Amino acid sequence: MCCSKTGRWVSRLLDPRSRSASIVVSRVDLETVVALRRAAVLVPGCRGRGPVVRRSAGSRRSTTQECPVSGGFSGDFKEQVRSQTDLVALIGETVSLTPRGGGGEHVGLCPFHDDHSPSMHVYPERQTYRCWVCDEGGDCFSWVMRIENVEFREALEQLAERANLEMPRRRQTSGPDRDERSRLYDVLSWAEEQFHQCLVTDAEATRARAYLSEQRRLSPEIAARFRVGFHPPVWDWLQQRASGRFTNSELEAAGLVKQRQDGSGLRDDFVDRVVFPIHDPRGRTVAFGGRILPDHSYADAPKYLNSSESPVFSKKSLLYGLDLSRGGIRREKAAVVVEGYTDCVTAHQYGLDHVVGTLGTALTDEHVTRLKRLAERVVLVYDGDQAGQMAAERALPRFLAQDVDLRVLTLPEGLDPAEFLERHGETAFRQLADDAPEAWEFKYQGAVSRIGSATVDARQRLLSEMLELIVLAPRLAGTAREALILGRLSQRLGLSEPDLRNELQQQRRRRSDGAVQRVDPGTRSMGTSDQPSGAGSKKASGPSAGRVELAEQELLEILLSTPESISRIHEQVRPDELRHAALQELLATCYRIHEEGEVPTFARVSSVLEDPEMKSLAVKIDEQARLKGTSQRVADPELDLIEETVQVLKWRREQENYESDRGLWSERSEASGRLDDEDKARLKRAFEHHQKRMQRKVVR
Ligand SMILES: [Zn+2]
C-alpha cells in the first residue's frame, strides 16, 4: 500500500462521518494478515515448486467416506456426532459469521483473542475452524469445550443431544461434579414448570395474573414465551410438590428454599412472587428472579429477589433473555441492554427482540464480549433518573476501549424502558436507540450540561474531565479509536490535536506517578496480554525453523492429506524419531489407527484426539497441507515428496549416529592411544556416507 493511499485510509478513519471506518480497516488488516501468513507458509515449505492450489471442495469427501464407521473403535460415536453437527450453525450461535469465497467457508470475529477483524475461519467441508491470529483451532468438540469451558465428555453429550443421537452407555460412572450439575438443571427446570403452570392455571395465581396484565401490561403470550411463573403465598408450596421427587437439600442447592432464621427448618424462597426463570444461552434454566406482588403482606420483603450464584449461575457473565434474543440481535446487528428482566420482557412484547437484561449488576466486560460476537453495536439503556445517569457515567471508562460501537441511552422524562414503551411505543424507542450518543459523546454531553462550555474556565474543566475518562481506559492508548476520539474532541473544544495529545500525555504521567496506582477492574479480564498469542504460549504449535523440523511437520501434513501413504511412512519412521513432542503424539495416533486396521483420515484422527490443543495442532497441519497443495505434491512422481521427507529425517538420524560414534571412538582412542583397523574402517565408511548426504542436500 503506498503512502498516499495510507493517508486516505487514515483520514477516512478519522472522519466522524464515516460509519464504516472500522469495517474498512478490518478488511485491510485481514488481507495483510492472510498475505503474510501465506508468504510465511509458502517460502520454506514449497520452495517454489508448483502453484499453491487449495484443495477442491469435493476431493476430501471421498477419502472421508472410505473410513469405516462401524467397528469397535471408540471414535465411531464421536465421528457420528461430528458428521451430524453443522459446524457453521454451531459456531454461528456464538459468533456472527459471514460467508467468504464460494466453498462454504465462513469468517467471523475470533472469541479467543481480542479480535478486531474477522480472523476466525470456519471450514464446513473439513468440519474445522481456525483463527489466523491466535492459532486456536479444532472441531465441534474443541469449540464446545472452549466456549462452554467443559470437559470432552460433556461436549460430546451436548453435541449428541443437539444431533438427536443417544449416548452409548459407558461402564464408567460420570464424575460427581457432572452429576451434581445435571441434577441441578433437573431441579431448576422442574421448578420452572411448577411456577409457570401455577401462573397459567391455578386459582391461587389470580392476583399475579392481574398484576402482570394490569400493572405490567404483559400478555399471556409473552409470559408463556419467557416462561414466567408464580409462587403462591404458602411457605412450603414447592417443598410439598417436590416430595418424593427431589430432596430438600437439592432444592436448597438450587436456591429454591432457605433455612429459616429461627432455625425451625426450611422455607420456600420465592413466596408470593412473580417468578422469571433465567436461562443460559443454551436455554437451560439456571436461576430465577422474583418480583414480589405489590399487595403482599410481608414486612421488609425486597421488591426483587434473584437466586444466589451457583455452579450453573453467574450473574456477571449471564444476560437475561439472550437465549431468545440471539436471532433478533443478529438480524438488527445491534443489542440493546436494559437493567432487569421486566423491562426486557416488555421490550420483547413490543417487538424489540434484540433486547437483553442485566441481572442486578452493572454491565461487565464478559457481557460486552459476549454481545460483540453477535452485534456490531451495543446500546446501554439507563433509566432517565439521577441513579440511571450516575450508573451510566460509572460504566463509561471500562467500555470506552471496547472495540464495539457502544452507545449510551438515558430515557427522557425520568422514565424506565417499560414506561417509555407504553407511553411512546416501539418506533420512538428505536429512534432513540439509533440516535443514542457514543459512550464518549454521552460523557461529553453530560459534562457540558453540568459545567457549560462558554467560558475559558469551563472549557478547561471540560477538557480535563474528558481526558480523565480517556486516561481511565488504559487499553485505549495508542489505538485508532483513541485518535478518533481525540480528533472529535479537538473539534468540539477548539484545540489543536497536538495540544490535546500533549495534555493527555501529561495527565497520563500524573496518573501513573500517583502513589496508589488503581487498577481498573474492567481491564482485567479483557487485557490482550493474557490471551494466547501463539509465540509465547505453551500450547502445542508446529515447529517453525530448520529444515529437519519442517520435515517433521511435513511428514504429518503428508499423512493427514494423503492418509493412504501411512504404510510407507509407518515402515520407515518411528514416532520417537520426531523431536517435537506434540507431532510425536500425532504420529503415534496415526499409527495406532493404522494398527487397528483403519485409515488415519483427518476426520478419524481428529475424532480420536480429545485434547483441544492436539486437535488445534491437527487442524493447523491439515490447513497448511491444503495451502501447500501437499496431496498434489505427493502425487507428483518426479518430486516424490514422501521419500524426500523421510530421507531428511533419516539423514538426521544418521548424522546423530555418526556424531555419537565419533564421540565414542575419540573417547576410545584417547583411552587406548589408538584405534584398531576395524574401527578405522567403520569410521571412514560413516564419514564418507555422511559427506555424501551433505553434498546431496546441498545440490538439491
Ligand atoms: Zn483468535
What does this structure look like?
- Among the domains are: 3-46; 59-162, Alpha-Beta Complex (DNA Primase, Chain A); 176-313, DNA primase DNAg catalytic core, N-terminal domain (Alpha-Beta Complex); 441-512; 651-699.
- It contains 29 helices and 15 strands.
- The protein has a 5-stranded antiparallel sheet. It has a 4-stranded antiparallel sheet with strand order 6-9-10-11, covered by helices on one side.
- Strand 9 and strand 10 form a beta hairpin.
- The longest helix is centred in the C-terminal third of the chain and has 32 residues, at 641-672.
- It binds zinc ion (ZN).
- Residues 110, 112-113, 115, 119, 131, 133-134, 136 line the site of zinc ion.
Keywords, please?
DNA primase DNAg catalytic core, N-terminal domain, 700 residues, alpha+beta, 4-stranded antiparallel beta sheet, disordered N terminus, 54% helix, 15 strands, DNA Primase, Chain A, binds zinc ion
Detail the topology: elements first, then pairings:
Blueprint: H1 3-14, H2 21-46, H3 59-66, H4 75-83, H5 87-92, E1 98-99, E2 106-108, E3 120-123, E4 128-131, E5 137-138, H6 140-148, H7 152-162, H8 176-201, H9 206-215, H10 220-225, E6 229-231, H11 237-242, H12 248-253, E7 257-259, E8 266-268, E9 273-279, E10 285-292, E11 304-306, H13 322-332, E12 334-339, H14 341-349, E13 355-358, H15 365-372, E14 377-382, H16 386-400, E15 405-410, H17 417-435, H18 439-451, H19 456-471, H20 480-493, H21 497-513, H22 547-561, H23 566-572, H24 581-595, H25 602-608, H26 612-628, H27 630-635, H28 641-672, H29 677-699
Zinc ion (ZN) binds at residues 110, 112-113, 115, 119, 131, 133-134, 136.
